[in-house]
């Protein structure tokens, strides 16, 4: 929603300012189609050349998620931490082996299915269950577990950042492709140097539209998408860091409520629930 509103503001302010200054839209409308063809086509071709098939597929798959609002809100984090609390309380009361069945088949576990919002996120559930499984069956100490978690989170962050980097590369190239379109327009103009000044003026104005469109597309449309993509990746990484900190605190022997507090402190202040708020939320959900 904000993307559409932002694009409308960009277009409205740029073209509105041009209109207020007395600019004529005829020149832009006449030149825009073929200038956009040159700029857009060159950018698309460069995107295909500069990225492998995996990156191209991941980028196109990632683009629709940019149109949606952030799913990482306070309600989601409270559900996540309530799930972790229930799991850790059961493990503390009945022993780690008591959660083995829940970890192996989380989609059938009454412990996990109480939190459909979290269970629906395959990657997050895989991260949680993998490390709970290690806690149940392995003899890793907290330092080894932390190192492994950090490596996986770094890998996830790098992989998730690939589409954002690809989008940013396209945005960085658009001004240059705008210049290419403008140069082609100048070449066309120079080939008609015997025409009247009025005609030459129209042709030069049309050529400059290429530079205008390239810069506008880069800084008004594409680069902001890359910035938004990076923000979404950071939010997803922060969620994994919250799980990591909570589970590590539990491995080090802290009570579930204290381990939850470790995880809560990792969250961004804009989504972090208050101590009392979270305590009331998790304790009214029977473990």
Key attributes of the depicted protein:
mainly alpha; single chain; 287 residues
What does this protein look like?
It is a single chain. With 287 residues, this protein is mainly alpha-helical. Helices cover 81% and strands 0% of the residues. The chain has twelve helices and no strands. The longest helix has 55 residues, at 197-251. The chain is elongated, with a radius of gyration of 27 Å. The mean pLDDT is 89.
Strand and helix layout:
Blueprint: H1 2-20, H2 25-50, H3 53-66, H4 74-94, H5 100-104, H6 110-113, H7 116-119, H8 122-137, H9 142-190, H10 197-251, H11 256-266, H12 275-283
Helix pairs in contact: 2-9, 2-10, 3-9, 4-10, 4-11, 4-12, 8-10, 9-10, 10-11
**Helix fraction bin:** over 70%
Give the overall average pLDDT.
89
- Which structural class do you get from the secondary structure elements? mainly alpha
Number of helices, where a helix is a run of at least 4 consecutive DSSP H or I residues: 12
Uncertain runs are none
Spatial separation of the terminal alpha carbons = 38 Å
The sequence of SSEs as H and E is HHHHHHHHHHHH
Number of strands: 0
* CA radius of gyration: 27 Å
The description of the largest β-sheet is:
none
In terms of quaternary structure, the protein is single chain
Strand content: under 5%
- Envelope shape: elongated
Count of the separate structural domains: 1
